[in-house]
Design brief:
Elements: E1 5-8, H1 15-24, E2 29-33, E3 45-48, H2 57-61, E4 66-69, H3 80-94, E5 98-104, H4 113-126, E6 132-137, H5 141-151, E7 157-160, E8 164-165, H6 170-181, E9 187-188, E10 198-199, H7 200-211, E11 217-220, H8 224-232, H9 247-255
Parallel strand pairs: 1-2, 1-4, 2-3, 4-5, 5-6, 6-9, 7-11
Antiparallel strand pairs: 8-10
Length: about 260
């Protein structure tokens, strides 16, 4: 079978980076999105489909060797599990040999609902009978940028106290996912984290400076086990700080005015 690769969530923050890199590598690429107006891209075969219902998924998966599963929706995250089950069922019917999954550092150590769903997804994939690879990464700067932009609408920007984040460039995560997709199933691979852990309050202040906004930053304590887990830093991976692009570089290139 030709090593055709399907990318789910292909128009998302990570998915579009994966699509671009696969296309650049000369790999036959399919891209699955919920959008009905598909991008005009002669190097990519685009498909409209809804993983949550399964509509259109079989057509996208037919004849595919490898799937890179980037589709996820933090706002409606409970749909992620039925979406993954539908994808796995379609992959079995199509004879897919390898599913590469992206997850989050710390999903097995923090009882945050979205993390619990991501962990359940890892376990479902592992038990699926398909060949699989699973990569956990730390936080994308693009997502931190979105969150901070929303928080900055308020007179005071709230940031979790005693908590650090380790932004990793989504393009570097895409590089690793493509590397995994072009290889054989590898199981759970080493985590991928950004070059430095930053206190959440300093992330907020540096973002505000770059965006040219004046707001006070207020540190707030996240209660319970979730807050304790984040303060303990189990969502970071200082021993896997292999990312190269820094938060400061991101701010200078994407946020600074």
């Amino acid at each position: 079978m030709e090593n055709t690769v399907l990318v789910t969530g292909a128009t998302g923050v990570l998915g579009r980076e994966v699509v671009a890199r696969l296309r650049g590598a000369g790999v036959p690429v399919r891209a699955l999105t919920r959008r009905t107006e598909l991008p005009e891209d002669p190097g990519v075969a685009w498909f409209t489909g809804d993983l949550a219902t399964g509509a259109g998924v079989d057509a996208a998966v037919a004849g595919v060797h490898t799937i890179v599963h980037c589709a996820s929706d933090a706002r409606h995250f409970r749909q992620d599990i039925p979406a993954l089950r539908n994808l796995i069922a379609a992959a079995r019917r199509a004879g897919v040999e390898h599913v590469v999954n992206i997850s989050i550092v710390g999903v097995d150590r923090i009882t945050y609902p979205y993390y619990a769903v991501k962990l359940e997804g890892e376990r479902i994939l592992e038990a699926s009978g398909l060949g699989w690879s699973n990569l956990r990464a730390t936080q994308f700067p693009e997502l931190l940028n979105t969150a901070l932009g929303f928080l900055a609408r308020l007179p005071v920007v709230l940031a979790p106290s005693g908590t650090g984040f380790q932004p990793v460039d989504q393009g570097e995560v895409a590089d690793r996912l493509v590397e995994l997709a072009l290889g054989g199933p590898a199981g759970r691979v080493p985590d991928l984290a950004g070059p430095q852990v930053h206190p959440a309050t300093e992330l907020a202040r540096s973002w505000l400076r770059a965006a040219g906004k004046r707001r006070p930053v207020l540190a707030v304590r996240i209660p319970g086990k979730v807050g304790a887990g984040f303060r303990a830093g189990v969502h970071t991976a200082p021993d896997r700080a292999v990312g190269r692009r820094t938060w400061e570089q991101y701010l200078a290139e994407r946020v600074a005015r």
